[in-house]
Design goal:
With 286 residues, the chain is of the alpha+beta class. The chain contains nine helices and 14 strands. Helix 2 packs antiparallel against helix 3 and helix 7 runs parallel beside helix 8. The radius of gyration is 18 Å and the shape is globular. 46% of the residues are buried. The chain binds D-MYO-inositol-1-phosphate (IPD) and calcium ion (2 copies). One calcium ion binds next to strand 4.
Length: 286
């Protein structure tokens, strides 16, 4: 065996999947925070609303390198390694979704906020085993809040077990959505849903980070979230946070969550049917 073979086979053992996910998210998040108001290159991807900076790319490289140091044989799907646009994202997921171990990473979820200095963005890291998410971590570096879930073991923030809200009706709910970059299908669908839902709830927020919105559903700060045209890296970690906190995640037509879901409804469970019905009635379920 040559020295370079030995190096390429070297892996740091004994750290759990969750510990590695937490370590990656915390490290990347701290670095992203130091770059706030301090990035140097801004470019457009799929549309005039789809931004990317060197910080998105740097964060992804840092996370990928750390994961591969521990688990060199695991597959990796990160937003910045995929061509922009919905078709390319779907194809990239298809290629790896059934891998034994797959890490799914959004290195900065909420890039527009990051660029404008609006302090609501996150790092999202999920690990799936043969297509099923088993670890999910979402880190908000501005509030130093780390949301973490392990399949079957619950979800936690600041060391406390999370529980979804108990709001039993849309009329008592604060919910959230986002405004997708795809102007052809996802954005018009979301706007129709918005029109229908605003009068039925206490209010609607649009914080600008889908992963954090999911974490907020998990922690009971929101009772529901829906958005069209998201990607696996926006949703995978958050979906496990929500279900491990007692909530429900489906697509906008009510089919159970899987890695391919792009149009999502995530709730505390109690308002799920009401929300699906409201979207369907408004012809805003896709
Ligand atoms: C975006 C954010 C935003 C959502 C967009 C996403 P990005 O992710 O999650 O909240 O509305 O649809 O694309 O581009 O900042 O990683
Ligand atoms: Ca994202
Ligand atoms: Ca991103």
């Amino acid at each position: 065996m040559t020295v370079s073979d030995q190096q390429s086979n070297f892996a740091v053992g004994s750290k759990s999947f969750t510990a590695v996910a937490i370590n990656c998210a915390a490290k990347a998040g701290e670095w992203i925070k130091t770059k706030l108001g301090n990035y140097t290159s801004l470019s457009l991807k799929y549309s005039a609303q789809d931004l990317v900076t060197e910080v998105d790319k740097g964060s992804e490289t840092m996370i990928r390198n750390l994961i591969h140091t521990h688990f060199p044989d695991h597959s990796f799907l990160g937003e910045e390694g995929v061509e922009p646009g919905p078709e390319a994202s779907e194809k990239a997921l298809q290629r790896v979704r059934d891998a034994e171990y797959l890490w799914i990473v959004d290195p900065v979820d909420g890039t527009t906020n990051f660029v404008h200095g609006f302090p609501f963005f996150s790092v999202s890291i999920a690990l799936s085993y043969k297509g099923e998410v088993i670890v999910g971590v979402v880190y908000d570096p501005m509030r130093d809040e780390l949301f973490v879930a392990e399949k079957g073991k619950g979800a936690y923030v600041r060391g406390r077990r999370m529980e979804v809200s108990s709001d039993a009706a849309l009329s008592k709910s604060l919910i959230a959505t986002g405004f997708p970059a795809d102007p052809h299908y996802a954005l018009p669908m979301n706007m129709k849903g918005l029109q229908a839902l605003v009068p039925q709830v206490r209010n609607v927020r649009s914080g600008g980070s889908a992963a954090l919105h999911m974490a907020y559903v998990a922690s009971g700060r929101l009772s529901g979230f829906w958005e069209f045209g998201l990607n696996s890296w926006d949703l995978a970690a958050g979906a496990l946070l929500v279900t491990e906190s007692g909530g429900k995640v489906t697509d906008t037509k009510g089919a159970p969550y899987d890695l391919g879901v792009r149009n999502v409804v995530a709730t505390n469970g109690h308002i799920h049917e009401e929300m699906l019905t409201a979207l369907a009635k408004a012809d805003a379920a896709g």
